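User: I'm preparing a small set of examples for a lab meeting where we compare how different chains pack in three dimensions. I only have the primary sequence for this one, and I'd like the structure in token form so I can line it up with the others. Please keep the answer compact; I'll paste it straight into my notes.
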Amino acid sequence: MAFEPDYDFWLLDLDGTLVDVEWSYTREVFDRVGDRLGREFTDREADILWNGLTGSRDRQLEEWDVDPREFWDAFHEEEDPLVRAEQTYLHDDAAFVADLDAPVGLVTHCQEFLCEPVLDHVGIRDWFDAQLCCTEETGWKPDPNPVERVITDLGVAHNGHQGVLAGDGANDVGAAWNAGLDAIHVERVGHERRGQCVLGDYRVQSFDDLY
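Assistant: Understood. Below is the structure token output for the 211-residue chain.
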């Protein structure tokens, strides 16, 4: 499918799509969470959960006999917003977002107390006309609800306007399609590490490949 850059609006995921975190930070957080839960997380397990390599993180936790609520409570207790922001870097190919001549929204699973310092640290807060950090109330991608809420906040009519959602995971593609949008999948980790191939309307290894 040839890329059509003339979208009426763009939606983007954050972690793994526009930004990433140094592995040392991820490893340290999982070490502390493991201490709280009395269960060690291997490098592979930490990678799977941090990057959502198998889709639903809650489902993956349940398969490992880890209670998702206990895990996330511990995980958020152990995440330091300022340290995480300092360990976060912006992907070079994400710079195209600043030049988009259309409304741009952010739809992320990153929690607000973490998201805000990250946006400030990497200097991309002004890239977005609307943003939403998913919660139990809004639903989680691939649920289309958080996507549709951002579309509403952007002030673009869903009918008659063509939009696209770009993200690094299957949940992003699913959310796009469930909301009637095109989907761009940017493969940051590689098919071998992911263990599967994620389909999308467009599949790239870098946003530079779109142009």
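A couple of notes for your slides: Residues 23-37 form the longest helix (15 residues). The CA atoms of residues 125 and 140 lie 22 Å apart.

User: Perfect, thanks.
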